[in-house]
């Protein structure tokens, strides 16, 4: 297998890593590939794609707030734009380290609308997401509002991430969103939930930046709460029906099998004896 083929497989593994588990997957891939030089040369693109898709929050040196890494504030290199400080910073995806804020960027003509929605979104996230971070960016004539809220508990074998991305034209128009949830539970098993929904929330209008932000936030709040409620109802129904049907009954001994002692079970003898009884 060529080096490019091995890198492609390694990259696919990384891109499928559950939220909060990228380092664990990387360590496994590193052991399988057994070629650190090759990893250093070719794996950066997978890390960058993963971080921007996950809306990964990072804190640049000297910054007071975290900044989300997204495709909407990423330039063609390894630099990201922080609109709250009108600055850029570099992020090393492999080392998982953000550089200092620098190179001040002049505020654009859409900054008033962006700032108003950013302020409203921060308040909403503080009220509804204990581990939430947010950011609002101007991209291709639209305000893009992003929310990331992750809870990771490796010691208890579970991770979870909520992401949402909302787009509305700077001057008002149709609000469109994508809502995503990912939960991974892996104690004595491997259970994953991945949900994604596209939303056309309707028209947003306002006579000024603040009223436009308020109108957008009202719809964002409504649709996110509805989606979270629908997920709760679906999971409650699943746990009471589908999971119960999937649960395997205990063996004839009425005891769980101790897999650590599987070698001590005399299954062959029991089967042979049962066969002899059937034959007679």
TrEMBL record:
Gene Ontology cellular component terms for the protein in this record: cortical cytoskeleton; F-actin capping protein complex
A Pfam family of this chain: F-actin_cap_A
InterPro entries: CapZ_alpha, CapZ_alpha/beta, CapZ_alpha/beta_2, CapZ_alpha_1, F-actin_cap_asu_CS
Keywords: Actin capping, Actin-binding
GO molecular function per UniProt: actin filament binding
GO BP of this protein: actin cytoskeleton organization; barbed-end actin filament capping
Keyword NAD assigned: no
Superkingdom per UniProt: Eukaryota
SUPFAM superfamilies according to UniProt: Subunits of heterodimeric actin filament capping protein Capz
Role: F-actin-capping proteins bind in a Ca(2+)-independent manner to the fast growing ends of actin filaments (barbed end) thereby blocking the exchange of subunits at these ends. Unlike other capping proteins (such as gelsolin and severin), these proteins do not sever actin filaments.
Family indicated by similarity: Belongs to the F-actin-capping protein alpha subunit family.
Quaternary assembly: Heterodimer of an alpha and a beta subunit.
Name under which the protein is recorded: F-actin-capping protein subunit alpha
């Amino acid at each position: 297998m060529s080096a490019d083929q091995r890198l492609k497989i390694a990259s696919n593994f990384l891109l499928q890593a559950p939220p909060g588990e990228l380092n664990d997957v990387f360590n496994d891939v590193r052991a399988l590939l057994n070629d650190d030089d090759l990893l250093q040369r070719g794996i950066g693109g997978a890390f960058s794609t993963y971080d921007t898709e996950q809306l990964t929050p990072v804190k640049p040196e000297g910054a007071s707030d975290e900044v989300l890494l997204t495709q909407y504030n990423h330039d063609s290199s390894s630099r990201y734009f922080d609109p709250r400080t009108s600055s850029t910073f570099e992020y090393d995806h492999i080392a998982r380290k953000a550089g200092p804020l620098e190179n001040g960027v002049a505020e654009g003509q859409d900054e008033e609308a962006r700032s108003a929605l950013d302020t409203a979104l921060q308040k909403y996230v503080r009220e509804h997401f204990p581990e939430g971070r947010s950011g609002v960016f101007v991209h291709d004539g639209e305000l893009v509002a992003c929310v990331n809220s992750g809870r990771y508990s490796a010691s208890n074998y579970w991770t979870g991430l909520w992401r949402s991305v909302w787009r509305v034209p700077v001057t008002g128009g149709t609000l469109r969103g994508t809502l995503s949830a990912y939960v991974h539970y892996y104690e004595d098993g491997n259970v994953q939930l991945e949900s994604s929904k596209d939303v056309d929330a309707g028209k947003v209008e306002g006579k000024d930046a603040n009223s436009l932000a308020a109108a957008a936030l009202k719809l964002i709040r409504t649709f996110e709460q509805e989606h979270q409620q629908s997920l709760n109802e679906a999971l409650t129904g699943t746990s009471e029906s589908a999971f119960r049907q999937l649960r395997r009954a205990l063996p004839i001994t009425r005891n769980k099998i101790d897999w650590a002692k599987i070698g001590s079970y005399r299954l062959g003898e029991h089967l042979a004896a049962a066969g002899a009884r059937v034959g007679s």
